[in-house]
Amino acid sequence: MLKDELSRLYRQFRLIHYRKLFGNIQERDGSLSATEAFAADVIFLLDEPTITQLAENLGISQPNATYKVNNLSAKGYVLKATSEDDRRECRLQVSEKFHNYYDTSDSFLRPALEKLRGQYTEEELKLFETMLHSLNDDVDSAE
Q: Which pLDDT belongs to residue 92?
């Protein structure tokens, strides 16, 4: 069933992601706790949010979000960039250290996509891409 297959794919993506994210957590100076790793990952996923947007997405208070961001910044995983439009606004960016430490690439998809290219026609793959695009748009608008 389509719903079951999408749920299975979603669970697999989550497991791969968590394995990569938490697999790098180690007890040493400058490393991140699980909560810090999660917060840094949400900053990465939100693509340069403000502290307010981070707090809203995590469902935490703004002071709590500020505390987390300050810790991540002190450890070098998050950068604060003052907005050009509004100097009071601060945009959050993950640093190169975050990318190096957590390997944010999607290289695990390449073999699966190559296999699909061998099994399906370009027309079938284009239809699949269109369906995924539509699904992404629907999920984005549902939030």
A: 96
